[in-house]
Amino acid sequence: MKELLREIIARTFEQCRIEGLLRSELPPDFTVELPRSRQHGDLATNIAMVLAKQEQRPPREIAEMFAGKLSQADPCILKVEIAGPGFINCFIDACAWHDVLERIEAQADRYGSSDSGQGRKVMVEFVSANPTGPLHIGHGRGAAVGDAFARVLAFAGYDVTREYYINDVGNQMNNLGRATRLRYLELHGCKGAFPEDLYRGDYIYDVARLVSAQHGDRFVHEREESCLPFFTRFASDTILQGIKDDLRDFGVEFDSWFSERTLFERGEVQKALDDFRAEGLVYEQDGALWFAASRFGDEKDRVVVKEDGKTTYFASDIAYHRDKLRRGFAGMIDIWGADHHGYIPRLRSFLRALGVADEAFSVILIQMVNLLRAGVPVAMSTRSGEFVTLREVMDEVGRDAARFSFLTRRSDAQLDFDLDVAKKQSDENPVYYVQYAHARICSILRVAEEKGLAAPVFADIDAGLLTAPEEADLLKQLSGFPALVSGSARAREPHRIAVYLMELVGQFHSYYTKHRVITDDERLSRTRMHLITCIRTVLRNGLAVLGVGAPDRM
RNA sequence: GCGCCUGUAGCUCAGUUGGAUAGAGCAACGGACUUCUAAUCCGUAGGCCGGGGGUUCGAAUCCCUCCAGGCGCGCCA
């Protein structure tokens, strides 16, 4: 409907130009929106105010003239009013909104999808936590946002691949191996000093016990140098498997798991550096090899090969993102913890050096999660092993509640996550507010079926019976869903879906208490049943995009 | 010192990419279940949108500046 009015306005505009009433071009930035207040009509446009400057006339004067033309432009425009500084408020024939019911019925679980992504191939890379320990609550937030965002993109017509980048080489890996070996020796009665900088979490004992169970004491007398690769590999494989299990149970699926180690095995890191050398993008200084990042917007140049001959993390990331490009991704969206934000200019500088457009690469930063219990902060420290894992949060508050809490907030704002609040099955918890509406609709339809009222189809209903203002509002809200999804994709803000759903169910619950769906009037009943069925479809689609369940009863 | 993020009701947060009288939920108070699920609804109260300048028809939103909190600023990952 919005789009339709835009077209009518554009048409009217041309008419005015032909008649010499307007001189300027059609401004591209005029808007058509749903006003907050019903007094302001069904749709409003600001075109007169936008035009005021170009035309050098007062906005209200333009509005008077334009509104007169607009009111004649299309039969579905019943009335046009001018208000405030120059808004043109349009009152639209109610039947103009009815076809949304037909569209929802026809598209069903595809309603809300669009081709605004035009099949562009994009990668969402997220979580990508080092396999040195279990996922914690912060990773959970990144997982929920990344997963939901990937679904939003897919729904909005992008060709999406979700990938987890595994940092399985480097110093941290060595530390993991050493820690595991020491715990293993400890289990076999050889307790030695345990360095401060190694991983102290209890999960290391779990890994060590697994080594013992599978290999007995065969490593007890072996020197560290010879068995360290084994311990490192064993521990990271075991922990990665745990991460995969956690993510699966959290409802997060990946299309691929990309190992940093394979970049080295295939010589990709070396190849990238050789190419840079050939193009004069790197130089040697102080015994190290530097990438000329400052030539591409970073604040200084960056080391890619250290004095000791080892490559840096940045070098791997260069090879990794080159690989993404080679795989044909027109869009790369990386989801990082906000503490890595300083790294963005570095990566962007390298992409610019390759001639990649800035729009092709973007980062969604996930801010910190402050974990609370009954309002009191819970101490978190990865190294000491004192942290609350994602698994524990899932077990305690439930998957849906946890995901929804993460997805109702913008990801670039810090988040207080109170375990006691999140676990309450009450009105303090918005996830149940939304799910309850879905269950309630299912319940109504069950009762209707018991009374012999079959599920209605659009052809059999009389949408003209939907005369209540609450019904008109619901139809408008439902019709805005596809634009919301594509807007959410474009703005990279998956939380908009959750906010929208809360608004929708607020309207529904309110409607429910004021109007009965099942009445003595069978035609009316069928019509309202169709309306709530459509609401249910949108709830299902919206919740599916968020990866949150839609229970039939609660 | 420099950079990024945040600052909106007592608390947790939205605010449709500059629009009309700034909205929800919780907490507080008062109401609504013989009728499709009360995990719900209706009402009351609660605000110099951190402060100050600017841009314009119009600013919570954009620019500058200051204040407060968080996070970064490695030949760590």
Task: Describe the structure in brief.
With about 550 residues, this protein is an alpha/beta fold. The chain contains 20 helices and 15 strands. It binds one RNA strand of 77 nucleotides through helix 2, strand 9, strand 10, strand 15 and helix 16.
Can you put this structure into words, describing what you see?
By secondary structure, this protein is α/β, with parallel strands linked by helices. It has 20 helices and 15 strands. The chain has helices at residues 2-18, 47-55, 59-70, 99-107, 137-155, 171-187, 203-215, 224-249, 260-265, 268-278, 313-326, 344-353, 390-397, 399-407, 419-423, 430-450, 469-479, 481-491, 495-514, 522-546, and strands at 32-33, 43-45, 77-83, 87-92, 121-125, 159-166, 256-259, 282-285, 288-291, 302-305, 331-337, 361-366, 369-373, 376-377, 415-418. The strands form four sheets. A five-stranded parallel sheet has the order 7-6-5-11-12, sandwiched between helices. Helix 2 packs across helix 3 (59-70), helix 16 (430-450) runs antiparallel to helix 20 (522-546) and helix 17 packs antiparallel against helix 19 (495-514). It binds one RNA strand of 77 nucleotides through helix 2, strand 9, strand 10, strand 15 and helix 16.
